[in-house]
Amino acid sequence: MDMNAGLEHKFARFGEGLTVSEDAVIEGYASLFGQTDQGGDIVQAGAYAASLKALEAGGQRVKMLWQHDPAQPIGVWDEVREDGRGLWVKGRLLESTQKGHEAAALIRAGALDGLSIGYRTKRAVKDDKGRRLLTELELWEVSLVTFPMLPSARVAAKGISPEAEWTWRSIAELFDSARQELARR
């Protein structure tokens, strides 16, 4: 039986202020609530709550994978929680593994800046614009990826200020919105 059957992936750039420190600790937002991704989905606040509670009750953790490959764990998520903005994660890249070492180096160099969540949709509804509002998700894993889908969040290597990240992200969002508006016309 394929354990990944029916597993969906939601790509996102790392959340605001995600950093990798010298000891390969990374933290930030893996998913932001209320933002439409390129697939037309919007994760709603509280979508992860039941899944996180079930994982905790079962003594399990959300897995940290490389590019969604279950054969390539690259670290551990020590903390995964929802807050008012989204799904916040904090973990350690295991630089003693080849992929963990590579991931840390790629993030520090700015060559890798994406996260993607692996999940199953438990509940979703369509809004009046045809977008899927994801209200309950079963979270399986959070991967480091090359090509994310949610353009509003990014990873930064240590030393890049969150304020600068926010400014550049805001400018990118304005250009993206303008591009979408022009495409509609």
TrEMBL record:
Pfam families per record: Peptidase_S78
Coiled coil spans: none
Signal peptide start-end: none
GO terms of biological process kind: proteolysis
Protease listed as a keyword: yes
An annotated Gene Ontology molecular function: peptidase activity
Keywords on record: Hydrolase, Protease, Viral release from host cell
Record-annotated Prohead serine protease domain positions: 23-158
Name of the protein in its database record: Prohead serine protease domain-containing protein
